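Appendix B. Raw example, untouched.
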Amino acid sequence: MAESVSRKVREIVDKTPFLRDVLRKGFLNYSNFAQSIRDEVSQACGKDVKETAIIMALRRYGVDLQKVNAHPSVENLKYTLVVHTNIAYLDFVKTPELVQQIGMLYKIAARNGANCFLNVLTSANTVTIGVSEALLPDIEGMTKGSTLLYKQTDMAAISMVWGSPEIQNPGIVYESARRLAWSSINVLEIFSTVEELSFVIKRTDSFEAYRVLQDLQRTK
């Protein structure tokens, strides 16, 4: 059954939350976007749909989005921001030998004190290690026989630390990442625990990221 223009346009917009935010804020170039989705909308509706009809549907949806509180309830959030600097991130090809060595990473970090940064992620094919740059010589020596895919230094990790499991509140991760994206802050990695949400970014973005996440706590 053919869809209505309005329904199809909303469906396309809803596929991308970031696009929905652009529409809600009134930043979307209606004409260009309508032109880009015209064929898809026409096919779904079973007829040739004019760009003007798509633009009207976009404008109506934008108005509807502005009427809805698009932000999660963040006004009662209580957290402390912690910034770790001088962090390096390394990606390796995953091998059984490297996985067996992961335990040694934690021993190395423990010898260097509680403030040492270490985060290890494993996927089907890679092992990603985020570590304080002071430990790079140890890490590089331990992984000498491993295949290095990517390395980036001079990074920072900014963490939102709660005294209660606020991470369970719907929308917190999205809202935090969305605001960083709007400030043109590229996030290399996101990781979380029950009481902590951390973003790994360039060190040069750390001051702006701190400001953005601090403002999230002040949102009313």
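End of appendix B.
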